[in-house]
Amino acid sequence: MWSRLGAYAPHWLTDLLAERAIFEYWSHEACFLPIEDYPVYRSLMLAGKTRSNAYARRWLQENQEIATALIDHIRANGTVRSADFTRNDGATGGWWNWKVEKMALEMLFIVGDLMIDRRENFQRVYDLRERVLPEWNDDRAPDVAAAQRTLTLAAAQALGAAPTRWLADYFRTSKAETARIVAALAAEGALMTARVEGWRDPVYIHPDNLPLARTAAAGALRSTVTTLLSPFDPVVWDRWRTLELFGFDYRIECYTPAPKRRYGYFTLPILHRGALVGRLDPKAHRKDGVFEVRALYLEPGVEPDDELATNLATAVRACAAWHGAPDVIIRFCDPPGFGGLVMHTLRT
């Protein structure tokens, strides 16, 4: 959101969640979603077609006693957090080494029996679906075909011009089902078909995007934005699309053991005037007011000129200020001289 809106107040999200204007669920990743989209996702939950749904149902079936006891506990005592349960199996925590109550909470969340009531210090607070959305009735859920059609059209609208494989990844839907839906939408004129020079497969364009597509085809669409992207940003979360479209090979490395990392723990792609030109690995030391850029890399062939340095410095300064860490330090840069250009601009 920061990449698009600038310095928004993070409490907006927790406020909107508490107001039931948005809800949390798995979309391309764990996401905040408009409450207007809940019927579509509920339809897919009921049909077992949401992300990890088959695994969640199998886990809950194999652990019925735990799941039932947890539901009964929440019904009798109110909302819970994972932190409310003490681990007693002797194991230590890790990225995915969850205690059994955390597993049960997440599985019940995936199938839709639990929802996120609110956030407390970033932690999810779970409650029964019927208490979070007391007015909801499953009879209002559209049929699965309509839900899948809605998501496919939304993906096409978001991506601009996209082959089927990109449309499927946008909401992590089945490639085979997406291909079938796309063909039907194109046949009825709900999606336009086009060709991109040098690409084998056709691309599909939402009718609302036709004016932009024509402008792009005429070579008259120019980006002026320079910003930093989250690793989960829609521009880069589909790694293969990012490589195909931008020639940018990107992988988030926070799950990679430190000795095997190439660029850093949580590198942010740099979007500059329609191109992905590099990445930087930041750490905000909020208590000290320092925004540390542990490493900054430009892509091969990118010109490290004054214009890029000025635009990047502006983006970094804005991000650092938003994090409450306005003093920027660059520890390492490749190419080396470019870091000095950025720092010079930051100091002026």
Describe the protein in words:
It is a single chain. It contains 14 helices and 12 strands. By secondary structure, it is of the alpha+beta class. The strands form 4 sheets. Strands 7, 8, 9, 10, 11 and 12 form a 6-stranded mixed sheet that branches. It has a two-stranded antiparallel ribbon with strand order 1-2. Strands 3-4 form a two-stranded antiparallel ribbon. Helix 4 crosses helix 6 and helix 9 packs across helix 10. About 1% of the residues have low confidence.
- Helix % is 40-55%
Q: Provide the low-confidence segments as ranges.
A: 93-97
Principal-axis shape: globular
How far apart lie the N and C ends? Answer: 28 Å
Count of discrete alpha- or pi-helical segments spanning 4 or more residues: 14
Strand content: 15-25%
Structural class by SSE content: alpha+beta
Mean pLDDT: 94
H and E order: HHEEHHHHEEHHHHEEHEHEEEHEEH
Total strands: 12
Cα radius of gyration in angstroms: 23 Å
Q: What summary fits the major beta sheet?
A: 6 strands, mixed
Topology:
Layout: H1 2-5, H2 11-18, E1 22-26, E2 30-34, H3 38-46, H4 53-62, H5 64-77, H6 100-111, E3 114-120, E4 123-128, H7 129-132, H8 144-159, H9 164-170, H10 175-188, E5 192-194, E6 203-205, H11 210-217, E7 226-228, H12 239-246, E8 268-272, E9 275-285, E10 290-298, H13 306-322, E11 327-330, E12 333-334, H14 336-347
Parallel strand pairs: 10-11, 10-12
Antiparallel strand pairs: 1-2, 3-4, 5-6, 7-8, 8-9, 9-10
